[in-house]
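Side project, low priority. Logging it here so it doesn't get lost.
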Amino acid sequence: MFIEQLLGLLRAAGWTLALCVSAGVAGTIIGFLLGVGQVSKIVVLRWITTAYVTVIRGVPVLLLIFFVYFGIPVLFAVDLAPFLAGFVALTVVAAAYMGETFRGAIQAVPRGQFEAAEALGVRYLDRTFRVIMPQALRIAVPSLTGYLINLVKDSSLIGIIGFVELTRAAKILSNLTLDPLGAFLMAAVIYFMISFTISRIGVAVERKLAPKSKASSRKLATTAIPAGN
C-alpha cells in the first residue's frame, strides 16, 4: 500500500517537474530579454519592460492563475487545459522576477567593464552580449537558482484550477487514506528533494562559471572588437 501511495505522489511530482521546467525555461528566456530591455538605451523599450516587471511582481501569483484560466477563455474564446494555463501563468510570473534578476546582475558588473569596451570601440550589441552578459550571468546564478526553487513551490497553487500536481495529489491521497500527516509528509520530502537538487545544480553551475569568467574577463573586450578596428 505504501509503495502504491508513493508511486502516485512520484507521478504527480513528475508533472510538477514538467510544469516547472517548461515554465522555468520559457521564463528565463523572456526574463533575459526583459533584463536587457530594462537597461537598454531605447527609452520606450526600457519603459515597457520596466512596467511589465513592476506590474507582474505586484500582483499575487494566485490572481494571475485565475486570470489566465478564467479570463483568457472569456477574452479570446479559447479553452485552456489546466496544465497549459499553469504554464502560461508561471511563465508570466517567472519572466518578471528573472527579468529583475538579470537587470540587477547587469548593473552589478563593474562600470569599468562598460567603459573599457566602449573605449575600445566595441559596438553596443557586442558589448552587451560578449562582454557584459557573461559576467552578469555568473552574478545572476544564485538568484536564479533561488527563484527556481520558489517556482517549484508556487506550482502548488496550480492545483486550485484542477491540475493534479504534487500538493493536490497529496490532498487526494489524504482523503482516500484518512492519513493527512503521512500523505503531506511524503509530499514535503519530495519537495525537499527537488529543491535540494536544484540548489546543488545551481552551486555546480556557479562554480563552473566562476573560473571561466575570471580567466576570460581580460580577453572578452579584445575578442569583441569588430574586424578592422
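Brief comment: Residues 128 and 141 are 18 Å apart (CA to CA).
Revisit when time allows.
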